[in-house]
Amino acid sequence: MKNRIDQQLDKLSREIIAKGGLQQPTADFKSNVMYAIERLPREIDNSYDPILSKTAWVLIVLCIMGSSALIYFMNVESTGLMNEILETLRSANTIEWSFRAMSWSSPIVYAVVIMGGLTAIQFSWLKGKYQNSLGV
User: Fold this and answer.
1) pLDDT at 95
2) Count of domains observed in the chain
C-alpha cells in the first residue's frame, strides 16, 4: 500500500513539473541584479562619535586632580605604603630634580629622539590620510 502511494505521489509530482516547467534565470540575470544594486542610492556616514564626550573627559580629569589634591594636602597619620607615598609627594617640591643631573647614554638619547620624530611623522601622516578618507 505504501509503495503504491509513493508511486502515485511520484507520478503526480512529475505531471506538475511537466505542466509548470522549471524556471531558470536568464543568462544575464547576475548582471541585471548587480546593475540594480549599483543604481541604489548610497548614504555614506563618516561622522565620528567619540566614546567619551568632552564633559566626561573633564569630569575624569577633575576627579584625578581632586584625588591627587586630597592625598597631597590631607594630613593622614598612617604607616605603610600610604605614608611613603605622602612623604614622597610632600618632599617632591623640595628636591631639585632635573634631567641634566641624570646621565643618559648616547644610544638611548638617539633612540628617544628618533622614535619621537617618527611618531610625530606617523601621527601627521595618519591624520592626513584619515581626513582624506572623510573627504574633508
Assistant:
1) 54
2) 2
